[in-house]
């Protein structure tokens, strides 16, 4: 047992020496492993021929060792020490490579492989580093909006579950936000006591400008992995940028040069800020006090007196103002006389159509829907002057602005009669015409003396311009007097004409006798011819 005791004593001594001599230092062999993976630590010692056993330990911060695994070279068995932290996680292979499964942050230690012979102890330390890649960073607690010229918290960039420490960087439009540009970032780290993983939050306080409209903000997390420094970027975040109105504009609907009396005008005021102003003051012509309204102000049924300058301003900043001039177009037309006018033939009738309007307007005259060359004016009315007159005008610039008035002129006259007589060239008949003039249309009646009968076998011409004629054709056998009576509401006029009997009555009788004579002669000749023929036939039999 002596050699064993001596051996044990030597072993303990050498263990103590090794603990004292092999302090952590530079150039130590390091195993980089990923959180959750298996840490594999080769022993890194040549296995001596006389090896009795191998052992693994780690060193506590104060330097004291904690043995965790043992493998006997001779008996080929493995033992793991009762260390709660490593329970069921260790595996020591035949070549003394130690594997630790489910790597944790707390595995970052200095482990030592010890190979023990009868007279020596060989040691090789290995430093374990564990890395945990953070999750993709996220921008949270985003500001609903940012305001120009105001320092405001934009949001938090959160990087979760990392080890070792990470850095967070903010970017505007892909470029690093420089802290000198009025940017303030504050970093906060939180370590989960169970996992020792960090959650790092960087808050960005930022003074925005209008240049940030639609510009993406991102953040990135820079971390160390087993193979060096790496970076993960967050998704883009956009912010609604609020900025004050720098210009006010006023709009008029309908378009300014088309406003006419009776229209409803909508004044619309716009500010170029974000959000746009919701309220404005509207100033009507000649009124220094503004009327508070939404961004529109409606004037209904405007009259010409609404012409003038209109303005609108912000409610809080009255110097931010816009103005516009509105002209309400109008067109007045007055026709004198107008409506239905009844005049007597030969009367004089002055007609005037006066226009007053916001622009020069031209007048068009129509008579019975036909355009007249010049304006009508009557010094002595004729029947053909009667009709429907329209005086019409419109403003070309303003759609829908037109006016018209009409005059229905009636020219009345008592019936006037003129009779004519025409004898047929052969003298057999006579055409008597009664020319009648008057309005309303006179009714014509013929009477013939002697018999005193009323003739209705007449031919009438159309009634045009207050005039027409009635015609009869007679063949009188005695001297007669024809009377033409024309009557309308105003008067009854009578005219008569003496017609002598047909002078060539005898001539007609002679001609008839001659014709009868010829016919009788022909008949006699035919009779003679017939008798001769009969006699001849009888004789030949
Ligand atoms: C030790 O053994 C393990 C398997 O048991 C093997 O994967 C590893 O490569 C070996 N290491 C050395 C240094 O021989
Ligand atoms: C974080 O920033 C510091 C200082 O700039 C630097 O020394 C360190 O290496 C950075 N860490 C990472 C993970 O980039
Ligand atoms: C103007 O508005 C009133 C209601 O406010 C409406 O009755 C009228 O028809 C409108 N006039 C025109 C020309 O649109
Ligand atoms: C404009 O004239 C109308 C009558 O045509 C009148 O009722 C209205 O009050 C006037 N408006 C202004 C602003 O003078
Ligand atoms: C309108 O009338 C005025 C005079 O009444 C005249 O000086 C002006 O030239 C006219 N304008 C047009 C466009 O006809
Ligand atoms: C006039 O006409 C009516 C019917 O058309 C007739 O009955 C009458 O006999 C006529 N008179 C003369 C005189 O021809
Ligand atoms: C008819 O009138 C003519 C003159 O116009 C006259 O010569 C004639 O004697 C008259 N005949 C009768 C029957 O009256
Ligand atoms: C027509 O004849 C009558 C007599 O038959 C006479 O009184 C009258 O004056 C004559 N009229 C005209 C227009 O010649």
TrEMBL record:
Lineage: Eukaryota, Metazoa, Chordata, Craniata, Vertebrata
Subunit structure: Homodimer. Interacts (via extracellular domain) with CD6 (via extracellular domain). Homodimerization and interaction with CD6 involve the same region and cannot occur simultaneously. The affinity for CD6 is much higher than the affinity for self-association. Interacts (via glycosylated extracellular domain) with LGALS1 and LGALS3. Interaction with LGALS1 or LGALS3 inhibits interaction with CD6.
TM region(s), chain numbering: 514-536
Topology class, membrane: Single-pass type I membrane protein
GO aspect biological process, one term: cell adhesion
Entries under Pfam families matching the protein: C2-set_2, Ig_2, Ig_3
Keywords carried by this UniProt record: Adaptive immunity, Cell adhesion, Cell membrane, Cell projection, Disulfide bond, Glycoprotein, Immunity, Immunoglobulin domain, Membrane, Repeat, Signal, Transmembrane, Transmembrane helix
Protein's cellular compartments: Cell membrane; Cell projection, Axon; Cell projection, Dendrite
Signal peptide region: 1-27
Alphabetical list of PROSITE patterns matching this protein: IG_LIKE (PS50835)
Gene Ontology CC annotation, any one: plasma membrane
UniProt keyword annotation of Repeat present: yes
InterPro entries named in the record: CD80_C2-set, Ig-like_dom, Ig-like_dom_sf, Ig-like_fold, Ig_sub, Ig_sub2, Surface_Rcpt/Adhesion_Mol
Matches recorded under SMART domains: IG, IGc2
Name the record gives this protein: CD166 antigen
Domain Ig-like span(s) in chain numbering: 125-233, 244-327, 346-408, 415-500
PANTHER family from the UniProt entry: CD166 ANTIGEN, CELL SURFACE GLYCOPROTEIN MUC18-RELATED
């Amino acid at each position: 047992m002596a050699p064993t005791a001596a051996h044990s004593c030597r072993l303990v001594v050498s263990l103590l020496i090794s603990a004292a001599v092999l302090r952590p230092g530079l150039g130590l062999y390091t195993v980089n492993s990923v959180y959750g993976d298996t840490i594999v630590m080769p022993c890194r010692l040549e296995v001596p021929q006389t090896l009795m056993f191998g052992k693994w330990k780690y060193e506590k911060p104060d330097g004291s060792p904690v043995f965790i695994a043992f493998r006997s070279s001779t008996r080929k068995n493995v033992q793991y020490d009762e260390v709660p932290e490593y329970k069921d996680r260790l595996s020591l292979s035949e070549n003394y490579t130690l594997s630790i499964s489910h790597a944790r942050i707390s595995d970052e230690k200095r482990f030592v492989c010890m190979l023990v012979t009868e007279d020596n102890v060989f040691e090789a330390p290995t430093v374990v580093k564990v890395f945990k890649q953070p999750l993709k960073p996220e921008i949270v607690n985003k500001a609903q909006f940012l305001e120009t010229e105001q320092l405001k918290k934009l949001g938090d960039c959160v990087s979760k579950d990392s080890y070792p420490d990470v850095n967070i960087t903010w970017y505007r439009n892909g470029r690093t936000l420089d802290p000198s540009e009025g940017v303030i970032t504050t970093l906060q780290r939180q370590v989960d006591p169970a996992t020792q993983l960090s959650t790092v939050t960087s808050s960005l306080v930022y003074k925005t400008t209008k240049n940030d409209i639609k510009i993406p903000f991102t953040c990135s997390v820079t971390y160390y992995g087993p193979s060096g420094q790496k970076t993960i970027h967050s998704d883009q975040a956009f912010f609604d940028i609020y900025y004050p109105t720098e210009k006010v504009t006023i709009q008029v609907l309908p378009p300014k040069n088309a406003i006419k009396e009776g229209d409803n005008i909508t004044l619309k005021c716009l500010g170029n800020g974000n959000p746009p102003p919701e309220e404005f003051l509207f100033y009507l012509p000649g009124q220094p006090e503004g009327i508070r309204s939404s961004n529109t102000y409606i004037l209904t049924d405007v009259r010409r007196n609404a012409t003038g300058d209109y303005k609108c301003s912000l409610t809080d900043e009255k110097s931010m103002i816009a103005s516009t001039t509105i002209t309400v177009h109008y067109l007045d037309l007055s026709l004198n006389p107008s409506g239905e006018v009844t005049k007597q033939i030969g009367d004089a009738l002055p007609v005037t159509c006066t226009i007053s309007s916001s622009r020069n307007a031209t007048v068009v005259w129509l008579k019975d829907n036909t355009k007249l060359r010049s304006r009508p004016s009557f010094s002595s009315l004729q029947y053909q002057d009667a009709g429907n007159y329209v005086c019409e005008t419109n403003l070309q610039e303003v759609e829908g602005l037109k006016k018209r008035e009409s005059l229905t002129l009636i020219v009345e006259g008592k019936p006037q009669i003129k009779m004519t007589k025409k004898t047929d060239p052969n003298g057999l008949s006579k055409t008597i015409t009664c020319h009648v003039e008057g309005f309303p249309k006179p009714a014509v009646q013929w009477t013939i003396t002697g018999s005193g009968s009323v003739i209705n076998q007449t031919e009438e011409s159309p009634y045009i311009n207050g005039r027409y004629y009635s015609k009869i054709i007679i063949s009188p056998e005695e001297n007669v007097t024809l009377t033409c009576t024309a009557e309308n509401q105003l008067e009854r006029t009578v005219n008569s004409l003496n017609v002598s009997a047909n002078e060539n009555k005898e001539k007609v009788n002679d001609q008839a006798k001659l014709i009868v004579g010829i016919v009788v002669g022909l008949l006699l000749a035919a009779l003679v011819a017939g008798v001769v023929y009969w006699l001849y036939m009888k004789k030949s039999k």
